[in-house]
Specification:
By secondary structure, this protein is an alpha/beta fold. It has 13 helices and eight strands. Strands 1-2-4-3-5-6-7-8 form an eight-stranded mixed sheet, with helices on both faces. 51% of the residues are buried.
Length: 304
């Protein structure tokens, strides 16, 4: 996987026309604060039919999923939370292990009276998604997992040595003081370095997410997501040892200029039924860089 991360940085010099700004969710979606697992999550819900849960990662919020939500709402109940401490969700001081955040999401499903759901995840959402599927295997019918590794699984120890992942250990009160008021500068590093073409993440998109991460306590909680990785690694190893590999269909999607086919290789350490896919002409930020291809891959998988 390291070679794909390195390729993402090298590809950042490419240029092409900018993509559209952040899309709004369809007007049929409603938003609510759902009480779950000692906190409250901002959740968008729309549509009718089989349920699908979409989980975002760092640098985005649930807003990233609007194009996929618009496609799926025609025949699905689409559930899009902001993760604990991110977006418009509450900001508890603790609870940022992905195993615990999976309990958050199971609580959202309970509150909405959803027993089973398909799952689509990206970045840190992948980590919450694995903990959800491993702890509640009967509740996840299939899983599309996009462009980020799982702590403690597969080549994790090699992956975390990549210079591109310096931010995994960038945290603490002094770092928070450095970033405060400069959230846009900090986030630009990720959008620029981990994209195939930084121009595809346009100014409106950058302003949108920078404003959300500038909300009180938001960057502190983002750092807490990364601070939990060591415990996440231990939790994942324990979940795998206790329950074995998950058996629901898994579609492991890598961005062509990021994890690529290594996504499927990584997921085979924890799942028995894995197929791979590639988002072409994209770095890590698949919904900003190539939303059309991402929507097509995900919707075709969920239609099977």
């Amino acid at each position: 996987m390291f070679r794909y991360l390195a390729a993402a940085a090298a590809a950042a010099v490419l240029t092409s026309p900018a993509m559209a700004a952040v899309m709004p969710f369809p007007a049929t979606f409603a938003t609510q604060m759902v009480q779950t697992n000692g906190t409250s999550l901002h959740v968008r819900v729309g549509g009718k039919g089989p349920a699908v849960v979409l989980l975002h990662g760092f640098g985005d919020t649930g807003d990233m999923w609007a194009p996929i939500a618009a496609a799926l709402v025609k025949d699905h109940t689409v559930i899009v939370p902001d993760l604990r401490g991110m977006g418009l969700s509450a900001h508890p001081d603790t609870g940022y292990t992905k195993k615990n955040q999976a309990v958050d999401i199971a609580g959202v499903m309970d509150a909405l009276k959803v027993q089973k759901a398909d799952l689509v995840t990206h970045d840190i959402g992948n980590m919450v998604g694995y903990a959800l599927a491993a702890q509640y295997p009967a509740r996840i019918t299939r899983w599309a997992v996009i462009d980020a590794p799982l702590p403690g699984i597969g080549n994790w120890d090699a992956i975390i040595r990549s210079p591109l992942l310096w931010h995994f250990n960038f945290r603490g009160p002094d770092m928070e003081r450095l970033v405060q008021g400069r959230e846009r500068i900090y986030l630009d590093r990720f959008w620029n370095e981990l994209s195939a073409d930084p121009k595809k993440i346009d100014e409106e998109t950058r302003q949108h997410y920078a404003a959300l991460y500038a909300r009180p306590h938001a960057m502190h909680d983002a750092f807490e997501q990364f601070a939990a990785f060591n415990q996440d690694a231990e939790d994942n190893k324990a979940l795998l040892a206790k329950g074995g590999k998950i058996t629901m269909p898994v579609f492991a999607i890598g961005a062509g200029k990021s994890f690529g086919s290594a996504m499927a290789d990584d997921l085979r350490f924890v799942a028995t039924d894995v197929t791979g896919g590639i988002v072409p002409a994209s770095g890590h930020w698949i919904m900003e860089e190539n939303p059309q291809a991402t929507v097509k891959l995900v919707t075709e998988f969920l239609a099977k």
